[in-house]
Amino acid sequence: MVFVLWYLQNIIFNIYNKKILNVFPYPWFLATFQLFVGSLWMLFLWSSRLQPYPKPSKDFLLALLGPALFHTVGHISACVSFSKVAVSFTHVIKSSEPAFSVLFSSLLGTDRYPPIVWLSIIPIVLGCSLAAVTEVSFDAGGLWGALISNVGFVFRNIYSKKSLQSFKHINGLNLYGWISIVSLAYLLPVAVFVEGAKWMDGYRAAITAIDWPPRFYVWVVLSGVFYHLYNQTSYQALDRISPLTFSVGNTMKRVVVIVSTVLVFRNPIQPLNALGSGIAIFGTFLYSQASAAGKAKKKDA
Description:
globular; plastid
């Protein structure tokens, strides 16, 4: 059931996120609003006692600063990518995240990977490269946004392991709630500085472009609600299932999202682009299997 919710929420988020960016191409505003909605939702859950309130210690908040910063970088970069290219292309490039994880974890000395894991990232890189050079909607800004998003989320994961190990009593939902709040504090002033002067003109143009103006508000709210919900579900899933099951589920999630958004937006796809996308996603699956096998060997040793 958790996978059904996770996939459905992700599909809805991606559809409405792109619908908004098609008429209101201001990703910094949208990314900020999505964090704002998530923060409000968590404050509601805590104040109504529907979710236990984890009173944060000074040490916890200090430990959260690094992971929340990189979460912010990952989120805004992905949103910039979504604003410039097809949703399917962004997700194909984001499927290369394991390659970045292996590279940076090795360089920083936080993890060592066996040769089989290094071999598994070859199809990921090749597939993403083939998808990029054959992408109909290719835009350099969209490509770089997706790549920077990968770097941001990889560093978020690395620093979460380093700094949040001693706070395991805080469950996934509460942890993501605090990450949302701190990320909002990071992103809001930067978003206002980067594109705040353009928001009113963009809003008027968006309302004019939509035949029924209230639809714009509905789209914006839905994007914020489902952005938080799918992330909340993913953090809760991590509490319930094994890392391997989560990795496989995350790989399949990208397939479902790519197919769904291609059907909704009817993006043209070249045969070589589809082949590259398939190779990259299959490489991600191989990586999850190879990584799990490597961890199992370490435990046996």
